[in-house]
Amino acid sequence: MTSLPGNTLLRTQALAGYRRLLRARTKLFAGDTHALAESHKAIRSEFLKNRHIPGPPEQVAALSAEYIKMIDEAEDMMLHGIVRGELNRERNVVEVKIG
After folding, report:
1. Is-contact 68 76, C-beta < 8 A?
2. Is this model's pTM higher than 0.85 or not?
3. d(Cα 7, Cα 13) in Å, to the nearest integer?
4. Pair 25, 36: CB distance under 8 Å
5. What was the pLDDT predicted at 68?
6. Contact at 8 Å (CB) between 75 and 66?
7. Beta strands in 17-70 (DSSP E)
Protein backbone atom coordinates (compact mmCIF):
# COMPACT_ATOMS: atom_id res chain seq x y z
CA MET A 1 0.00 0.00 0.00
CA THR A 2 1.46 3.34 -1.00
CA SER A 3 1.03 6.44 1.10
CA LEU A 4 -0.06 9.75 -0.31
CA PRO A 5 2.15 12.79 0.16
CA GLY A 6 0.94 14.86 3.11
CA ASN A 7 -0.22 17.75 0.94
CA THR A 8 -2.40 15.51 -1.21
CA LEU A 9 -3.89 13.77 1.81
CA LEU A 10 -4.73 17.10 3.48
CA ARG A 11 -6.31 18.35 0.27
CA THR A 12 -8.41 15.19 0.00
CA GLN A 13 -9.56 15.52 3.62
CA ALA A 14 -10.41 19.21 3.15
CA LEU A 15 -12.43 18.56 -0.01
CA ALA A 16 -14.27 15.68 1.65
CA GLY A 17 -15.03 17.96 4.60
CA TYR A 18 -16.30 20.65 2.23
CA ARG A 19 -18.70 18.19 0.63
CA ARG A 20 -19.85 16.94 4.05
CA LEU A 21 -20.61 20.50 5.17
CA LEU A 22 -22.57 21.18 2.00
CA ARG A 23 -24.62 18.02 2.55
CA ALA A 24 -25.20 18.91 6.22
CA ARG A 25 -26.42 22.39 5.30
CA THR A 26 -28.79 20.85 2.76
CA LYS A 27 -30.38 18.77 5.53
CA LEU A 28 -30.39 21.63 8.02
CA PHE A 29 -31.93 24.21 5.71
CA ALA A 30 -34.18 21.97 3.60
CA GLY A 31 -36.88 24.07 1.98
CA ASP A 32 -35.24 27.42 2.82
CA THR A 33 -33.66 28.60 -0.44
CA HIS A 34 -32.28 31.80 1.08
CA ALA A 35 -30.55 29.97 3.95
CA LEU A 36 -29.21 27.36 1.52
CA ALA A 37 -27.70 30.04 -0.72
CA GLU A 38 -26.24 32.07 2.13
CA SER A 39 -24.79 29.03 3.90
CA HIS A 40 -23.19 27.87 0.65
CA LYS A 41 -21.56 31.29 0.25
CA ALA A 42 -20.33 31.28 3.85
CA ILE A 43 -18.85 27.77 3.65
CA ARG A 44 -17.17 28.49 0.32
CA SER A 45 -15.81 31.80 1.61
CA GLU A 46 -14.21 30.15 4.65
CA PHE A 47 -12.63 27.43 2.55
CA LEU A 48 -11.24 29.91 0.06
CA LYS A 49 -9.92 32.11 2.86
CA ASN A 50 -7.98 29.16 4.30
CA ARG A 51 -7.02 27.62 0.98
CA HIS A 52 -3.29 28.35 1.24
CA ILE A 53 -1.67 27.96 4.62
CA PRO A 54 1.80 29.52 4.66
CA GLY A 55 4.67 28.26 6.75
CA PRO A 56 6.95 25.28 7.23
CA PRO A 57 5.50 21.84 6.53
CA GLU A 58 5.17 20.95 10.24
CA GLN A 59 3.19 24.12 10.95
CA VAL A 60 1.00 23.62 7.88
CA ALA A 61 0.25 20.03 8.91
CA ALA A 62 -0.65 21.05 12.47
CA LEU A 63 -2.89 23.91 11.35
CA SER A 64 -4.52 21.76 8.70
CA ALA A 65 -5.32 19.11 11.31
CA GLU A 66 -7.01 21.82 13.40
CA TYR A 67 -9.06 22.93 10.39
CA ILE A 68 -10.13 19.35 9.66
CA LYS A 69 -11.22 19.00 13.31
CA MET A 70 -13.23 22.23 13.03
CA ILE A 71 -14.92 20.88 9.89
CA ASP A 72 -15.89 17.72 11.79
CA GLU A 73 -17.26 19.78 14.69
CA ALA A 74 -19.21 22.11 12.39
CA GLU A 75 -20.76 19.17 10.56
CA ASP A 76 -21.77 17.54 13.85
CA MET A 77 -23.28 20.80 15.11
CA MET A 78 -25.23 21.29 11.87
CA LEU A 79 -26.60 17.75 11.93
CA HIS A 80 -27.22 17.31 15.66
CA GLY A 81 -26.92 20.60 17.52
CA ILE A 82 -29.37 22.94 15.83
CA VAL A 83 -33.14 22.74 16.07
CA ARG A 84 -35.32 24.62 13.60
CA GLY A 85 -38.87 25.67 14.17
CA GLU A 86 -41.68 27.12 12.10
CA LEU A 87 -44.21 29.64 13.25
CA ASN A 88 -47.75 28.29 13.30
CA ARG A 89 -49.72 31.51 12.88
CA GLU A 90 -53.02 29.77 13.51
CA ARG A 91 -52.01 28.66 17.01
CA ASN A 92 -49.44 31.45 17.49
CA VAL A 93 -46.70 29.01 18.52
CA VAL A 94 -43.38 27.85 17.11
CA GLU A 95 -43.51 24.19 16.12
CA VAL A 96 -40.30 22.22 16.41
CA LYS A 97 -39.79 18.79 14.91
CA ILE A 98 -37.20 16.74 16.77
CA GLY A 99 -35.51 13.75 15.21
Report:
1. no
2. no
3. 10
4. yes
5. 93
6. no
7. none
